[in-house]
Design brief:
There is one protein chain. The chain is built from 12 helices and 15 strands. The protein is an alpha/beta fold. Strands 4-10-9-8-7-5-6 form a 7-stranded mixed β-sheet, sandwiched between helices. The chain has a 4-stranded antiparallel β-sheet with strand order 11-12-15-14, covered by helices on one side. The chain has a two-stranded antiparallel ribbon with strand order 1-3. α1 runs antiparallel to α12, α2 runs antiparallel to α9 and α10 runs parallel beside α12. The longest helix has 23 residues. Bound molecules: pyridoxal-5'-phosphate. Pyridoxal-5'-phosphate (PLP) binds next to α4 and α5.
Length: 423
């Protein structure tokens, strides 16, 4: 039974089978030397020690081997991305042949649209959500323009007054417009509200009309359990710097369903790293795509970034993978909901769904206290050692991450928030 006391939070921490994982991370310090209350894993995850070690290992390999590092050492660079495939595939529920770490998120979304947005004059519309992350919105609009169309070919799925996306509205949109729509791009977890979308159901509905569907999993990868292969998702892209703790701007992930990987005729932008490995260095000019997601690679990848990702994936493996992490995450976020509701329900509204299956770790807090400037509150929290993030117009995103946040972190955050609101 929930209790709003520090003793209760301490007891939850003592019972937490993953409490040892926090020591694997560097927690930024406040001016007084105490660790920050860091809840911004939804934006930039903290540094795993293994990431640091692996990056140093690669700097040492470069120092020792020079160009021979492509072939020598424990982790040669030529196949380095392959060292990430198994764990990455496990995290998103893909087959190993369906997953590759390459480029950045928006770049991969474009590459996927090159392959999967194949419009004609009659069937050319793209459906996205109205509140899509701006980069996704820009990418989609620029793809329309690239094909000679414009924003009138964009269909927007609107959230309702509760800020959430309702699947009945998606069904209604498709019923009316399916003859015009050729591609759907949606988030796995909506970045502003933290709402988890039902990827399996959305995919089924899209496919029942013969429409291709892809997902931006920036806020889903490393946060919730995914089964992209079984759900028949056509493609998905995600970044590695949020819940995957691989450092700012680190290399992104891409999933392409097996049924598409094995289709060499599929349109794509090509580069030598996507070419058949046996003949890559023959330097001939006939492109033969690798018949896996690797066939979409363009360039030889930044090894220092991949090294950080390898360290992060090893850290997930140390925790036993996503299943136990998600179990803790559900408890930790529910504890936060209970405490916030108990202490502050008059001053804050949680716009994230209350059903744990419809959210990941993030809660989006809307300040409702009359006369209070939400941004000033956010700044006051920062002064008191709490790191959250702010999203216009008036939402603070708070993401207790099961790998390194504790129940006591959440307890202290709510007490600081309460004090800031009182003052
Ligand atoms: C949902 C979502 N999509 C796309 C992006 C853009 O990512 P990138 O700059 O890695 O392309 C972000 C960045 O935070 C995001 O949150």
């Amino acid at each position: 039974m929930f209790e709003p006391t520090l003793t209760f939070a301490q007891a939850l921490d003592n019972q937490d089978p993953l409490k040892h994982m926090r020591a694997q991370f560097s927690i930024p310090k406040q001016a007084n030397g105490e660790p920050e209350y860091y809840f911004t894993g939804n934006s930039l995850g903290l540094q795993p020690q293994r990431a640091r070690e692996n990056v140093i290992q690669m700097l040492d390999a470069w120092q020792s081997y020079g160009v021979k590092g492509h072939f020598e050492g424990d982790y040669p660079w030529l196949p380095y991305h392959e060292f990430l495939t198994k764990h990455s595939a496990e995290l998103v529920g893909g087959l190993e042949e369906e997953v590759v770490m390459m480029n950045s998120l928006t770049a991969n979304l474009h590459l996927m649209m090159v392959s999967f947005y194949q419009p004609n004059q009659h069937k050319r519309k793209i459906l996205i959500e109205d509140h899509a992350f701006p980069s996704d919105h820009y990418a989609v609009c620029s793809q329309l323009k690239h094909h000679g169309f414009n924003e009138s070919d964009l269909i927007l799925w609107q959230p309702r007054e509760d800020e959430l996306l309702h699947i009945e509205d998606f069904e209604a949109l498709l019923e009316t417009n399916h003859q015009d729509i050729t591609l759907i791009l949606l988030p796995g977890v909506q970045y502003y509200t933290g709402q988890v979308l039902d990827i399996e159901k959305l995919t089924k509905i899209a496919h029942s009309y013969g429409i291709t569907i892809g997902f931006d999993l920036a806020h889903a990868a490393g946060n919730i359990e995914l089964s992209l292969h079984d759900w028949q998702v056509d493609f998905a892209c995600w970044c590695s710097y949020k819940y995957l703790n691989s450092g700012a701007g680190s290399v992104a992930g891409c999933f392409i369903h097996q049924k598409h990987c094995q289709n060499p005729a599929i349109n794509r932008f090509a580069g030598w790293w996507g070419h058949d490995k046996q003949s890559r260095f023959k330097m001939e000019n006939k492109f033969i795509p690798i018949p896996t997601a690797e066939g979409w690679q363009l360039s030889n990848p930044p090894i220092l970034s991949l090294a950080a990702i390898r360290g992060s994936l090893e850290t997930f493996a140390m925790a036993g993978g996503l299943r136990p992490l998600r179990e803790k995450s559900i408890k930790l976020t529910q504890y936060a909901v209970d405490l916030l509701t108990h202490e502050l329900s008059n001053d804050m509204k949680i716009i994230t769904p209350m059903d744990p299956q419809q959210r990941g770790c993030q809660l989006s807090l809307m300040v409702t206290k009359t006369g209070l400037d939400g941004k000033a509150l956010f700044n006051a929290l920062e002064k008191n050692g709490v790191t959250l993030d702010w999203r216009e117009p008036n939402v603070m995103r708070f993401a207790p991450v099961p790998l390194y946040n504790s129940f006591c972190d959440v307890y202290h955050f709510v007490q600081i928030l309460k004090r800031c609101l009182e003052n």
